[in-house]
Specification:
It comes from Mucilaginibacter achroorhodeus. The chain is of the alpha/beta class. The chain has eleven helices and nine strands. It has a single domain, classed as Luciferase-like domain (TIM Barrel), CATH 3.20.20.30.
């Protein structure tokens, strides 16, 4: 058990720009900006977008563009990637894109890097072409990025302009123990995708902490856990809202993808016992319920894991219900009484 308390942690948001049934990517982006503006108001630390491809319900494929859109519509919250799938991109291009973002919004940009393709293998082949096995270069590509950002690269024949000499924090993202080893060896902060890949979470953060080597960027290990959060006034209402998330993950399990669907009364009419088990295993780190329920469950989670920050993702069909969940979750951590959204 750690000594970390719920009130000690930072709280942030991971956004996949979900496209709901009846909506479009355009309406999704506008919703994301409204959520980010609310998150800034109620004390969230950062707002990250995740790179995914060939998924009709996820509109965050052009991640750096969305980062600029939200950073331009907010004033102080950190905005970044959770993450950029580095094997999909040349490090120089990433350095230039994030150097541009940091130049536009100084002191507010985070660069989270993942090694997965963020899609299926066929789409990954379409993205990477002859660089299909580029995942093997992940640690070297991080070093290349750090070089491009370094002022010491000024005499190189290949330079990132903008990007060179800028302080852009790099994060390593992961869903396995491999990424934990990379983050520890390089002395970088570590964000784990426990919202959909809980199996190796505790093992990975132990490996990261046990093997962490201080760096110029970070002196002590720092862990973000990404979790699913659906908060409402009552447990039954939150559970009802959560059926949209369960249907979304059912699509992942079965391969039958769809736009984020509205809630349903009874999931048993939709999934088989095997499918339910598979979905609920993926959703092990989900915090669904009233403010009191989430407070108790999250408090125990923080004490058990000692994470430094939680990053909430909330696949909720109704936009106002999503906004309400964002506010309630902030209230849980701030231990303050709920205030109406218009105050």
């Amino acid at each position: 058990m750690s000594t970390t308390k719920l009130s000690d942690i930072k709280y942030s948001i991971l956004d996949l720009a979900p496209v709901v049934q009846g909506g479009t990517p355009g309406t999704s982006f506008k919703s994301s900006l409204e959520v980010a503006q609310l998150a800034e108001k109620v004390g969230y630390t950062r707002y990250w977008f995740a790179e995914h491809h060939n998924m009709i319900s996820v509109a965050s494929s052009a991640t750096s563009i969305l980062i600029g859109y939200v950073a331009g519509g907010t004033s102080k919250i950190r905005v970044g990637s959770g993450g950029i799938m580095l094997p999909n991109h040349a490090p120089l291009i990433v350095a230039e894109q994030f150097g541009t973002l940091e130049s536009l919004y100084p002191g507010r940009i985070d660069l989270g890097l993942g090694r997965a393709p963020g899609t299926d293998q066929l789409t990954a082949l379409a993205i990477r072409g002859e660089n299909f096995n580029a995942v093997q270069n992940f640690p070297k590509d991080i070093l290349r990025l750090q070089t491009f950002f370094s002022a010491d690269n000024a005499n190189s024949k290949v330079r990132a302009n903008p990007g060179e000499g800028l302080d852009i924090p790099i994060w390593v993202l992961g869903s396995s123990t491999d990424s934990a080893k990379v983050a520890a060896a390089m002395g970088l902060p570590y964000a784990f995708a426990s919202h959909f890949a809980p199996t190796y979470f505790r093992e990975a953060i132990k490996i990261y902490r046990d093997n962490f080597r201080p760096s110029d960027q970070l002196k002590e290990p720092y862990v973000i856990s990404c979790i699913n959060v659906i908060a409402a006034d009552t447990d039954p209402e939150a559970e009802r809202l959560a059926t949209s998330m369960k249907q979304m993950f059912l699509g992942v399990v079965t391969g039958r993808r769809q736009l984020l669907p509205p809630p349903v009364k009874d999931m048993d009419a939709i999934w088989s016992p095997y499918e339910e088990e598979a979905v609920m295993q993926m959703l092990a780190y989900s915090f669904v319920g009233s403010a009191e329920t989430i407070k108790n469950k999250l408090g125990s989670f923080i004490e058990e894991t000692g994470v430094d920050e939680v990053m909430a993702t909330s696949p909720i069909f109704d936009h106002q219900s999503r906004m309400y969940s964002v506010k309630l979750f902030a209230d849980v951590i701030r231990k303050s009484a709920y205030a109406p959204l218009n105050q």
